[in-house]
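Hey forum,

I'm writing up a methods section and want to include a predicted complex as supplementary material. The small molecule is zinc ion. I've pasted the protein sequence and the SMILES. Can someone with a working setup run it? I'll credit the forum in the acknowledgements.
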Amino acid sequence: MRAVTAILLFMSCVTAGAETAETIFINGNIYTVNDKQPFAQAIAVKGDRIIFVGANADAEQFRGDKTRIVDLAGKTVTAGFTDSHCHIFGIGEREMTLNLEGTNAREDFLAKVKERVVQTERNNWITGRGWIETFWKPPQFPTRTDLDKIAPDNPVFLTRADGHAAVVNSAALKLANIDDHTPDPFGGQILKTNGDPNGMLLDNAMDLVAKNIPKPTEAETEQAFLKGIDREIKLGWCEIQNAGSELSDQEIIRRAYAARKVKLRMINAAYGPGEAANALLKNGATLNAFDHRFTQRTIKVIFDGALGSRGAALLAPYSDKADTSGFLTQKPEELRPMFEEALRRGIQVETHAIGDRANRLILDLYEQAFKAVPPDKRPAPGGGASSGEPGVAERRPPRADDVRWRVEHAQILTERDLPRFAKLGVIASMQPSHAISDLFFAPSRLGMERLAGAYAWNSLIKSGAIICGGSDAPVERGEPMIEFYAAVTRCPLPEHGLPVGAPSGVELRSEQNSGQDVRWAHRQDAYVPPQPEGWHPEQAVSREQALRMFTSNAAYAAFEENDKGSIEVGKLADFTVLSADIMKIPAPEILKTRCEMTVIGGEIVYGDR
Ligand SMILES: [Zn+2]
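Reply by user p_vandermeer:
Happy to help. Structure tokens for the complex are below, copy them as they are.
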């Protein structure tokens, strides 16, 4: 008996001692996002998982002859950043077509288009994306006449940054047979001046022209996908949640993963209603495929337009255009059966809803579906499933009432609807950068009263709702530091200047100014910046909350909290290494902070290897 005990003891010692790390990252300023152990210096990794988090000295015991030591030299490390809402093909396409981001004047915009026209053969299409008139003086939409002057012989289609509007020239309108008699399609508008189409097309009206543009080849689309992935990894994203895909996109994605061309982790949604959603409902979810890099279990619905183009569906008319209150882009009666089927099949749903009417109706529809298909009629969602070693992390069995449906954007909420997120267990998937872009024009679109429930991060958090953070790139730039800055300051980017109506004498911090002159400092810092009416500085979140939005909450929103979202023993070794301590530096410094290293599954996929 004693001998057996001795052998068992000996064996367990060998097992414990045999745990040898492949890589140990030391000398880090590590924010783990794990409440039980918030800070650490070292992380030891074996395979793609974390086997130790703690002090440098204690990491030594995991060191073997072949263990690689990576000295982080005091740099800041956070749990891997996740972009909970972006469009990966669009991100890549923005790099490949005419990128109109950052054109801060109408003249800049037209000059960039003109440059492209000169390089393009007659009759060939010119497409691009990223313009936004908000920062132009005056902030007015471009027109077909503007474009006709510089592009008389090429059809032009230029998507607004938000993807919910496009400006086209006369050649493009002609190819689409759009004239003053063409009716608005459902869920879209052909904007007119004196009864004549002026070149601006909103939401579903964009398709009338877009369908005439030659489709990119499959090779071009794959190239866009890989370009997008490459950009994301360099920015420090460890995972993206792709907010919608058609079957043809899915094929390209799967092929690229199967060929091991993609290191980035991806949670992919299928557009619905339609073919992609039907296929997902029929075939079921794909969980943790390709070494835990690819999951697909979500249907993405687009329920209304955007605020900038006045397509967001509001309960009352726009404050700056009394004859419209926006529009829905899907019919509720067509969503009902799909939602119920999703519950019966354990499929998650996420819905784009911006206006207060779209948000109310989608919460109604979710609530009705939850009642129509109660938990005992649902399979447990595929949550918590893991390809990792059993027993290393807590594996809570998923519950059938834990559906984690999401509302994407959840931008404008009434007082009545705001608490319903927490009550229904619906996740608010929000993009901090939208607030600091939109609040330039949101006061005029909505009026002061409705702004109280707009981009209401803190109110949602206080109500008990979970917010996962995203960028919506290519609608926004898609950089983690811009999102983090927006979440904690709720102040404009320096290049965008001050909000309309800012008190005079307020300046942005310039390079020459000393630290004392930080006008747009974080609220936790001593200095509170002057805020013009309507920006609701009290809705800015703490740095800890902002970090959660892009790490642990993002993991939760994808049923991935057992494997991702924090630096913890047993979880996947995903982390982002930054050039500065974003939890402590003055807020403007956040925008200067760079990703120095991206680690996915213990592998340094970007940065000094
Ligand atoms: Zn989006």
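Some notes you might quote in the supplement: The first helix runs from residue 2 to 18. The longest strand covers residues 294-302.
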